[in-house]
Known about the structure:
- The N and C termini lie far apart (45 Å).
- The radius of gyration is 20 Å and the shape is globular.
- Helix 1 (2-13) crosses helix 7 (202-219) and helix 2 (46-58) runs parallel beside helix 4.
- The strands form 3 sheets. Strands 4-3-2-11-12-13 form a 6-stranded mixed sheet. Strands 1-7-8-9-10 form a 5-stranded mixed sheet, with helices on one face.
- The protein has a single domain, classed as Metallo-dependent phosphatases (Purple Acid Phosphatase, chain A, domain 2), CATH 3.60.21.10.
- The chain has 8 helices and 13 strands.
- The protein is α/β, with parallel strands linked by helices.
- The protein is 33% helix and 23% strand.
- Strand 7 and strand 8 (156-160) form a beta hairpin.
Amino acid sequence: MFTQKRLTEAYDRAKTLYFDDYSRIVFMSDAHRGDGSVSDEFLKSRNLFEHALTEYYENGYTFIEVGDGEELLEYSEMEHIKNAHVDTYKEIKRFYDVGRYYRIYGNHDIYLDNPKYVRKNLDINYDEYTEEFFDFLRGIEPLESIILKHRYTSQELFVIHGHQGDAPNDQFWFFTMLSIKYFWRFFHRVGIKNPASPVKNVSKRHKIERNYSKWIEENRRALICGHTHRFKFPKNKAIPYFNTGCGIYPASITALELSEGMIRLVRWKEKVDENGKLFIKRETMRGPEPVEAFDIRKPKEVVDYLSEKKMRRTKKEREERASFRENDMK
């Protein structure tokens, strides 16, 4: 019940952005960038993340980071995190400088809800090599939530990190921070995770996802979030609950893409060719499906008709415009 209330409050406060069938948006979450030490989980996927961002930038995507970009509960000094991942933040700054970066905060980067903290840590940065300060993400306003609204059909996609209503990570986040910062962070170094986290606690994760589904059914809006680290894409056009997954899987990262009026779940992973050379490959895991297929405001028969009509009418044009061609991507 509390989750429904918290999600609704976030929906009412959300910033509205408009999209259409020519928009290109990528959603990624839960990178948990740390300070570069042994317990920094982002280190193992940093190259994947940077490569994916480069490809998305060059192909005209807007990047919406759906929370927990930084691991601020363990490493409260943002300066150390920025210095540990210079190239990653260069890619993020490229998006921001052209108006294509939006930041949602989650429970592990909840400090970004404080404008003073944001101004101090994100407005400027320091280059250790040139020993100069420079504008970084000056003026950025991290958000709790975003409503993506289709410019012509008014269909909405509600984007939020997803910790809302998860008591240890929401209203009691400060005490969770203390346990992580002074206890669990040291266990991370040997691979032991906090059992209170939905990442490892399966029953808790399922409960959270059931609460998401209840909100979707009651409010008739598609939901895109992160938090649980378990990627989700509706099967058979079921309840439109999407989860981006995370950026710290052992050998891959996942993302949701919205382009050409289609939505899909993708995975970026390292592979090896026949000559023993490593390369990065993007793979489609689910989809693509027309975004209209997940508009639960309309009767199912209408949704199915519009989706099929769109698939037939725009397939050739969509394929010609597509940013990525699976056979060519490495």
